[in-house]
Each structure stands twice: as structure tokens, then as C-alpha cells.
Predict the structure.
Amino acid sequence: MEDRKKLLLVGTSPHMLTDDNTRSIMLDVLIAMAPALAAGTYFFGFRVLVMTVFSAAACVAFEFLWQLLMKKRSSIGDLSAVVTGVLLVFVLPASVPYWMVLVGDFFAIVVVKQLFGGLGKNFMNPALAGRVFLSGWATLLNTYPLPSTDPGYVKLPVFGNIPMTNGVPDAVTGATPLVAMKGGALPDQGILELFLGMKGGCVGEVSAALLLLGGIYLLVRKVITIRIPAGFLLTFGLLSLLFPPAGVPAFQWMLTSLLTGGVILGAVFMATDYSTSPVGPGAQWVFAAGCGLLTFVIRRFGAYNEGVAYSILIMNSTVWLLDKYIRPRRFGSGKKVKKEAEAIMAEIKRKNEGGEAL
Amino acid sequence: MKKKSLGAIFMDGLLFQNPILVQMLGVCSSLAVTTSLINALGMSAAVIVVLICSNIAISLLRKIIPDQVRIVSYIVVIAGFVTIVDLLMQAYLPSLADSLGIFIPLVVVNCIILARAEAFASKNGVIASAVDGIGMGLGYSVVICIIAFVRELIGSGTILGYEVFGGYYQPSSLFILPAGAFIVLGCTIACYQAVRNRKAARKEALK
């Protein structure tokens, strides 16, 4: 028995050793989201933090109950439900009632994720689909409270619903920069204010700086690659630079477009979701460019002033197609290699015909 | 081929070969008219009447209609019945006819009716065709009424126009919009398939 331990055990390839698993990756994503969550809490009050915890707990509970009901092995330990719960709150305004968060969690976890087979089998980003499902309560979803840096800021109640009159929350709300931009004008905030997050908007999307910080962490930890965020932001930025509205300086418009709404949150945390983005590098670039293009088109020509969620969901549904047709080149194949091989064969043939001994 | 009993033909239409849940026919109209339960009931009545009448008429005419022009002939027969139903509805139920709008005339090209004419009525006797019409018509009706019930309940907070939740409930406009129709239809089909698969598995286990 002792000798056996000294034997070199050889298995078949791939010989890879890594400690990565779903849990560790999801934990990294949660760590990366922490700065943005802190920003959301700073700008919109303690309600944000409570709501995030509530949403994460609800997602885990739904996943646990569903798997219990279906007599499946519970997968709540992999933390993916927690990530979905946090991401859903990130794309909602801080003033939404708690029941709406619960409904969104239910749709995201049970309908979008579990009904399609659970982790890795959902074809759409659950958190984004949850948000879009909530769009039926349009008034509640399109009222954005002012950030704490605004002189008109009023504290939101931590628990319970915001008092409402005629279905409209009483909270002091203001137009997000996107409303001004829809009209073809630059918002009141300067670039630096937008970069730091002093603006109305969804909980997790306001602070571009802290979102990028989280993105860098994910890149360093190799949880995501640069392709999807870079492709998304480059395409969207380039289109904004090339086609600014009349009378607006192009470069400033590009920076403003990139720093408002959910572009950075979408590019870093939403579009990079493993199960709803392509596998091959080429397909990932195309996917990312599609997201950027659609976001631009919806913002400029559509009825909504923000299109990140819809463009990512639309591109999510093309992933199988992209993966099928844009495949990475296999080692030793492709046009260039084929040409070289043909040249060598021709050389051999020529030499043979010339009577030269090989 | 062994002849099916009338009961089996009826149950095929209602459940096992349900036009919407299994054959995926008539999905367009079932998505469009299910915004409220009353619309769905009106549409159901129209489809059942037209389906039974056209099945009987086509079954009677099946030996006379030449094969080359059969589809055209079916459409003429169906269009006749649809016109009758349309005029009757406009005369006696004008508000319902208004809210159903174009979808009543469109019953002419409803895939369920044409499919039953082609697949069943043109090959079977009058009584069997009538029973098939009733079964398929009821199968369609039950499903669109379920969809309409859910959509009206969540989308407007009402059932047949009556408030059910009281003032606290906030209806979600998503369920009145087409997206809600697709979600509810998808979930209905999923539930049906789940029950069916479970039954099949149980049968398999008994063998």
C-alpha cells in the first residue's frame, strides 16, 4: 500500500489543476459588486443595502424551494442565486416596493433559470429578464429618486413601501441624465460627476468609477476576459462619437453616453454572464459589438431612453447561433496553414517530377 | 386503419391532440384576443360554431369537392359560416364584436379550422366530423380561456370586468401586452407537458 502512493498516477488529458469552481467564481463576482453596492447605499440610503440582502435571500429561498419541490439536488451553495438577487436590485430604482423585488426574484429564478434547467442552462440573463418582467409596473419602475448629493434629496424609508399618491411614489424624484439625453442635449451633470455617480438612476449603475473598479478586479482574477466589456463599450462609444446629436460636441457626448445609464454595469456584469454569452473569442467580440450597436440604436431611435437591458437580452438569444457559426480556428487548420501545406506539397511534387532524389 | 370511437375523437380534440397545446395551431388568435376573459369567451363561441358547421359541411361535400381545388373550396365554406357568425355578433353583441375587431373575420384563415377540414372532415363521416369539431373547438376554448383568465387577473386585476383584489393590487400592464401573452402561453404549455410527461413516466413504470 505504501508503495502504491509513490507511484506516478497518469490520467488522460486535460491535465489541469485549478481551485476554481462555481462557488469561488460567484464569490469573486460578489466581491467585485461590493464597491458599486457601497456607492448605491451612499447615494440612495440604507434602503438599498437592506433591499439587496432581501433580494439575495429571496433568490436563494426560491431556488431552494423549487429544487425541494422538484426533488432535485439543491444548488444554493454555488452562490449563483445570490449574484442574481444582487444584480436584480442593481437594475432597479431604490424607490421600488419590496414586493416588486420579490416578484422579480421569482421570475428570474423560477421561470428564467430553473424552468430552463437551472444554472448554465438559462438562455437569458435572469436578473435582466426579471427587471424586464417588472416593466409592467411602468410608473414604479420609471421613478428615480434623487441621489444624496442633490440638494433636494429626501431620505427613503429603510423598510416598507414609499407612500404613494395615485400610483406614483411620493419620494422626491428627478429626471435621470438619460431623459435630457433623449432630447438630444447634454445633462446638467459634468463628466466627473457622472463618473463618480452623482446622478439619479438604478441602484447599481450610478457610479461608473466603482463599477470599473469591480471590473478590473474580475479581470485580474480572470473571472471575465476583456473581450465582452471592451467590445461593448468600444462599439457603443464609437457609434456615439460618430453620430452625436446636432449641436453637441462629439467627444463630450461619447463620454456622457458611456457614463450614464447601465452601459458599464451591463458591459461588465451582465453581458459577461457565462451561460448567456458565447464561448469562442470571435463569437464573444460579435456578441459584444451587437450589444453596443443595439444599445445605441434603442437609445437614439427607440421609444425608451435606455436600451442596455433589452440589447443584452436580445443578444443573449443569439448566443447559440454565434457559437455555432463563429468558431475558433482549430490548431493546424485555416486558410493560411492550408496554403502553406499546399505550397510544400507542390514543392515536393515539383522535385519528384524533376527527378531529384528525395 | 382502425376506426376511432367518438369518445376518443372528442378527447383527442380536448386534450391529447389539443390544437393549441399540442398542435400549436391558432396561436396567433389565442395570443391576440386573450387580453380579457370576455373576449376569449366570445372568440371561443365563434370558433366552436364555425368549426362544427364547417366540419359538417365539408364532410358532407367531401365526395363532391375535386381534389385539385379542395383548399379553395374549404375556404369558401368556412368564409360563409364566418360571415354568418360575424353578422350575428354585430347584430346582437355589438360591443363584443367591436373589441374582437378583425379577429372574427380572421377566423376564416384560422389554422385550426382549415387543418381540421383538411386532416379530418375531408376523410371522415358527418357525425365523426361534428364530434371532432366539438372536441377541437372546446380544446381551443378551454386553453384560451385559461390564458385570458390569467392575463386579465394579473394584467387588470379583474375577472369578467369585476375587481377581485380591491384597491391595493397594482395590475401589471405587461400581461395585457403581447409579451405577457407569450409568457402565459409558454407557461401553460410547460404545465401541460409536465403533467403529460409525468403520466407517461408512471405508465412506463407500471409496465
Q: What stands out?
A: Chain A touches chain B at residues 111, 115, 133-138, 140, 167 (CB under 8 Å). Residues 22-325 of chain A form a domain with the Ammonium transporter fold fold (CATH 1.10.3430). The two ends of chain A are 55 Å apart (CA to CA). DSSP finds 17 helices and two strands in chain A.
